[in-house]
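Suppose you are handed only these lines of text.
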Amino acid sequence: MLADRRILLIICGGIAAFKALDVIRRLREAGATVVPVLTRAGEEFVTPLSVSALAAQTVYRDLFDLTDEAEMGHIELSRAADLVVVAPATADLMAKMANGLANDLASTLLMATDKRVLIAPAMNVRMWQHPAMQRNLAALRGDGVLLVGPEDGTMACGEFGPGRMADVPDIVAALAAALSDGALAGRHVLVTSGPTHEPIDPVRYIANRSSGAQGAAIAAALRELGARVSFVTGPARVPPPEGVEVIRVETAREMLEAVLAALPADAAVFAAAVADWRVANATDRKMKKTEGAGAPTLDFAENPDILKTVSQLDAGRPGLVVGFAAETHDVATNATAKRARKGCDWIVANDVSPETGIMGGEENKVSIVSAEGVEDWPRLSKVETARRLAARIAEAISG
Ligand code: C5P
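From them, the structure of the protein bound to cytidine-5'-monophosphate can be written out as follows.
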């Protein structure tokens, strides 16, 4: 994906600028050419010499540098690239982009380019949350600018929250995905995500702790590859990604209905943590605590298995059905058995035993169980796991 590609990398002024050096190194290792542009503020954080030495290229710095204009005008510079990347992207540059300003080399290149633009924002949490920033962000998204991060984390300024630039491997993965643009164009992929809520009475329910993070990341990664995504989600903590069709449900039975209504699909990914049982004697009126009557008894009924139902459809089964398995021991053996039991094509299995720290964490370490056997992936962020899975799905359904 990256070999022989030409990346125009704009480095703005921010503490995270040092990470851009590592981005250059990794891109070059992957066979890409990096043409660096350093803003005036960027020069305060990394030196032109280190940038050009790592990139083995001239570093472009000034709109009115005549030598550069003679060698390559700014219009050409912005178009000779396969992709334009801004890392770190500051609040200032994003405001310029959102408003179409072109008063230095970086902003002019971004106005003049006809290529996709990927930005990795990095700023203080208050700046990120400021209404002006959020307005600009919405405008940039509307313009089709791709984003990676920011992440939650402790920042150089000591505050905690969203604003920390995405990690270098995530930036490189986002870049690779942006370059593989269109691998899923014209394809429809269904994704289930989040927990389900099973009512006890109109105000009480049974739920689980699924955040919906992995499902949302998978939907976003499929969308990045150009797929039309139907995102059937239970009440999740993590919001659904931009650019997908969101179908909100509460119960397992509603989820099954929504999934069947969203078919046909080229592929379906079942990342939801569906409740295995519902309360069979749920009441329409709030259960009352009656003095001396004791605690009520709940009866349970089995919920439909959505993954199994769709995997075993005679007509309208998606070409590729992917299920998940969270295991605490004998991961490969259990996941292989689950694949056979459900009738799906792949199982994405992860070890959620407490010592892995995966449950509720930022990272994941999965194995892909398919007809070919078991493939162990390295420990990656959930976003990068999602990108790899999306790329693998693209390969499988277009191959
Ligand atoms: O059987 P188990 O719950 O371990 O299987 C997990 C996989 O099955 C996940 O992909 C999950 O989304 C899916 N599933 C489902 N409907 C259920 C239970 C699980 O789609 N009722």
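What can we learn from it? Residues 192, 252, 270, 272, 274, 276, 303, 305-307, 323-325 surround cytidine-5'-monophosphate (CB under 6 Å). The chain has a mean pLDDT of 91.
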